[in-house]
Queue: 2 jobs
Job 1
Amino acid sequence: MKNTHGKTAVQLQDHAGIQCSLFYGKPLSIVDAEHTRKALFSDGEFVGYRIINGKREHAFLFRTNQRNGAQQVPGVSPAVTLMVDAKSGYRSYKLQEMLHMIVCHEIEITAIPDHFLLRFNTLLEGRNCSSQAMQNMIEKWCT
């Protein structure tokens, strides 16, 4: 998938057993492309993106970064700065729960330090990703 006019393009689709959708972020626009649609984002935007293939779910939280993006995310062009990689339905749910908690605390995601999101990714991979553990992280690192 090629970049569209200097923006980060995120593929959206809902057919043939594959669903690609946004759960966080507001695109500049959504354009129709051949067999799919693309959400276009400017530089520096946080994007929550989910891919469901059959019963498998994979979610990502990344920042668009055209100059320094290093990680490739399926359906996204060009490379981005990946913050959270949720590799299951449960982890995807917990990522969305964390984003909801941040919104409820009235914290702007751009004010959150990158190391907080990277620590959250580590918490997500562990066994104790409880709501209380996430709340404690927010209180320690974001307030």
Job 2
Amino acid sequence: MTLGGKAEAYGQVTKKLSSAVVHSVLTGRVDARMIEALDRDATLLGWAPSWLIDATNILGFTPDSVPAGVRTLESGRSKGLRRIVIITKLPAARMAARTIGLAASVDLHVADDRRAADELLATPLRR
């Protein structure tokens, strides 16, 4: 099942890859509305223990995306999310992602590419 519509120059698409992984692709500038849409779509699809976010095509993010990200990860955690892997090489996005993960108490990893992300997803979840 896929939600979020067609990937455009700005937006997100979220789908469930399996019962273990929700996958989102972000494009454009990330803001609170986009993060809230991620939460809505993951909730409709049914949260999984792992969430893979491909942010290789983001242009940056707005300050309001950080508190929205914390709320989304807290929401996901309450529904079974245990790990998130974000693919991005953008230094500011990597730093913001790690801050959000710490604030929401979710096991968060940042990867440079899909191969590295898949390796992280293949490791057993922490108890």
